[in-house]
# Entry
Amino acid sequence: MRTSGFSNRERKKPMSEMNVVPYIDVMLVLLIIFMVTAPMLTQGVRVDLPQTTADTIQADKEAQSIIVSVDANGAYFLEVGDRGGDPMGLRELGEQVGKLLAERPQNEVLVRGDRNVDYGTVVTLMAVLQSSGATSIGLITEDPGT
# Structure
């Protein structure tokens, strides 16, 4: 006599594997959310810096100043003492400053950056000056009242 339904031999064994498909779906949705929101988190915050006047730096009489200028077009100029120079590349500028600092390590290194030059250009210049041997780098500014 046959009964309706399955006999003991025909019963399927319980599945012992975990179904991870829903977890993968949730993970992919979270990944997409993080990919969309991450660029928004890394953008800068608008900051209005205060305008102040700075005291003038008293130059050392024995040390000669090395002034490196960056114009609005991103061209670099090297001024030593009273002599100015022609525009030069960043690598050549680093080599020249390195030679000058090797001869006279007490020389001051000052950076004069145009107001309209990109901030990254000035930071790159300062990194090159530091790798050339400049231990202290000053910035030349103008009084906002002039």
About this structure: The longest strand covers residues 65-70. The two ends are 111 Å apart (CA to CA). Residues 43-50 have pLDDT under 50 and may be disordered. Residues 65-139 form a domain with the Nucleotidyltransferase; domain 5 fold (CATH 3.30.420.270).
